[in-house]
Design goal:
18 strands; FAD-binding oxidoreductase; Alpha-Beta Plaits; 471 residues; binds flavin-adenine dinucleotide; 17 helices; FAD-bd_PCMH_sub2; 5-stranded antiparallel sheet; Uridine Diphospho-n-acetylenolpyruvylglucosamine Reductase, domain 3; alpha+beta; 3 domains; FAD-bd_oxidored_4_C; 37% helix; globular; 4-stranded mixed sheet
């Protein structure tokens, strides 16, 4: 086995003491994942301050045969940034590379170092009257490099797409230490495979992202949030399609069943039912404007929803009158995981996607199939219907107590994943594969994994980039 301490010494000699952290107290928080599920070991954290320093480290790692685990904010939900437990690898932190290199108001583009935290990017864009249209719960920690490497999404994917759509060029150090410069701003470029796109979602297995060119949009001028009562996910989808036929200003479209709303109202302090009527399903719809001359979003939603209510597609609706009310609606949506945990006890959670149009039927059939196979459980989903991405939960119900997950969690997981793949879907709609879903992906889609491994072997023949993750 190669010696990581030799690499530590080589990096210190080349880049100076600032580039290396070796105090165990400094390393410990970064060697365990966000939720404390995976614990790794690394004798040092390497922390370069420039692309040239990353290139030097990667070249030295290649010479010494020492694996590197790239890390940004360490907010991975799948153990993607946790080093292996045997201490064979070193953490390569990009957090010192936190400079926004430029914001171009005309081109509506930012160029940011990989270690820039999402919230800092939001703030910098806003100073120019612009917005980076992706946000998520970990925005105070997640970095540009991590967002790219997990192809992160959020609640605005419906309108603006995930990182794959928002990253307009990537600079990265490839496993042999050479720098790939994709920051050139070319709108058209037909030179074969896109290395930029290969790096999106690669989870650090193909190289180290050092910077990205990112798309910006005008800052929000006004927003409004509608809360709808509906009879089914299919009616919710019909509603979304009807809205989209008339406007491109719908940013979010989230659904939840009545029982999840009840759980939030019972367990999340300060929440109030948005409607005074009960419905099998609910949807939250956000519309925005970026200029004073556009139809205000509350009026837009009122105008477009009225005929749907009249036709009975939507059973009831209310629209936020103030920003505080819009926030209150979103708070219910954002607290659903916590509310469900409190209300329903142990549950398996599946962050899955199928084609948007197939989701209503998939949700009904998968729930029925799981409840048939595991009598006493109850299955349901909530989340980003507009992206075909649902958080599908199977609750223990009357079937098991607190240790139900240990007893049957895997069996339920396999059944749900089998159903997702049979429906042409994905077992990872957000967060990536990491270590958590690696074996499951290999079980379900061996050909896909074989192809991914072939790409990895071509670019990283020594297998030094984030070993043990994804493939
Ligand atoms: C509360 C919470 C809410 C979340 N909500 C969402 C959500 O709505 N949507 C969503 O998609 N995700 C969500 N996530 C997951 C997580 O925030 C994202 O995956 C994010 O992109 C990770 O960024 P990071 O900088 O923390 O990356 P890290 O956790 O440090 O790393 C993630 C992966 O990327 C690799 N990596 C990191 N930096 C680089 C780099 N510079 N070059 C190459 N590889 C690199 C790592 O090796 C690892 O495999 C959430 C997480 C939390 C804790």
């Amino acid at each position: 086995m190669s010696d990581p301490l030799k690499l530590v010494e080589a990096v210190r000699a080349r880049l100076g003491p600032k580039a290396v952290l070796t105090d165990p107290a400094d390393i410990e928080p970064w060697a365990t994942d966000w939720r404390g599920r995976w614990h790794g070991k690394s004798v040092a954290i390497l922390q370069p301050s420039s692309t040239e320093e990353v290139a030097a480290i990667v070249a030295l790692a290649s010479e010494n045969g020492v694996p590197l685990v790239p890390q940004g904010g360490n907010s991975s939900m799948v153990g993607g940034a946790t080093p292996p437990a045997d201490g064979s690898a070193l953490i390569l932190s990009l957090r010192r590379m936190n400079r926004i290199r430029s914001i171009d108001r005309g081109a509506m583009r930012a160029v940011a170092d990989a270690g820039v935290i999402l919230q800092s990017l939001h703030e910098a864009a806003l100073e120019h009257g612009l917005r980076f249209p992706l946000t998520l719960g970990a925005k105070g920690s997640a970095t540009v490099g991590g967002l790219i490497s997990t192809n992160a999404g959020g609640t605005q994917v419906l309108r603006f797409g995930p990182m794959r759509a928002l990253a307009d060029g990537i600079e990265a150090v490839l496993p042999d230490g050479t720098v790939h410069d994709g920051l050139t701003g070319l709108k058209k470029d037909n030179r074969g495979y896109s290395l930029d796109q290969l790096l999106v979602g690669a989870e650090g297995t193909l190289g180290i992202v050092t910077a990205a060119r990112l798309k910006l949009v005008p800052a929000i001028h006004l927003r409004a949030v509608a809360w709808l009562g509906l009879s089914s996910p299919q009616k919710a989808l019909d509603t979304l399609r009807a809205l989209e036929a008339d406007t491109d200003r719908i940013e979010g479209f989230e659904i939840l069943p009545q029982e999840s709303l009840d759980a939030a109202l019972r367990h999340i302090p300060g929440t109030r039912a948005p409607l005074d009527s009960r419905h099998e399903w609910h949807a939250l719809v956000e519309a925005t404007t970026h200029g004073a001359d556009a139809e205000p979003p509350a009026e837009l939603l009122t105008r477009l929803l009225a005929p749907l209510v009249e036709r009975g597609v939507v059973e009831n609706a209310t629209i936020s009158a103030t920003e505080a009310q819009a926030e209150a609606f979103w708070r219910i949506r954002d607290s659903l995981s916590e509310a469900e945990r409190a209300a329903f006890g142990p549950a398996t959670q599946h962050d899955i996607s199928v084609a948007v149009e197939d989701m209503p039927l998939f949700m009904a059939e998968a729930a029925a199939e799981v409840e048939r196979a595991f009598p006493g459980t109850s299955a349901s989903g909530f989340g980003h219907l507009g992206d075909g991405n649902i958080h599908f939960h199977v609750r223990a119900g009357t079937r098991g107590g607190p240790d139900w997950l240990e007893q049957e969690g895997n069996a339920v997981q396999w059944l749900v994943d089998d159903l997702v793949i049979a429906a042409g879907g994905s077992i990872s709609a957000e967060h990536g594969i990491g270590v958590m879903k690696r074996d499951e992906l290999a079980r379900l889609q061996p050909d896909r994994v074989r192809h991914l491994r072939a790409i990895k072997a071509a670019l990283d023949p020594k297998g030094l980039m984030n070993p043990g993750k994804l493939v």
